[in-house]
Amino acid sequence: MAELTQEQLRFLRSHKIQRSDVFDGTGMTQGGYQKAMKDLEKSFVYGVTPCLKEGHTLRTKAGHCIQCDVRKIAFQLRSKTKAHVYIAGSYKLKLIKVGSSIDIDDRLRKLNEYKYGGASDWKMLASAYQDKAGRIENYIHDKLKQYSVEGSYVREGQQQQCYELFQCNFDDAFKPLKAIAGKFVRIRCASEKQAQTAYSFR
Q: Residue 75 pLDDT more than 80?
């Protein structure tokens, strides 16, 4: 597992790229990290072969250096503009996950298959199909930053870090989602009350 350098972190912040949208490809083949990135809908990768021009290791899924050509950032993110912003919960580990996905059912399957954050009991609790899904996801992350925790999972023998996990109540994440999405919010479990009761961890 590689760590993002301070230079890389500053670059990501300056271009409003969340750490949760970056995949650690250390030790993986190009085909391996590309498949994992597709499965988890990650846009960028680090820890891979340095670019020839400046030796950067932040790339798009297709292998383009985003530090040498920042135009690739907007192009990569454009395809993810409209998506489901979702709230998932692990009862066993008392975790809430806020993310975005084009295919929400497949995302849930992959979360459990990969044991994302160390949990294999993820349940989809609520979602809203929205334009600018990434911005909404980031907004909710900012609202929950005091509850943020890091987790991990293993992909092709490599440990990956997770940054979009929170030790909070379902309602803490649901309120900002509902405030933005309003009538477009869909409860994915039996009821909002059930989610509030079962996924109340603090």
A: no
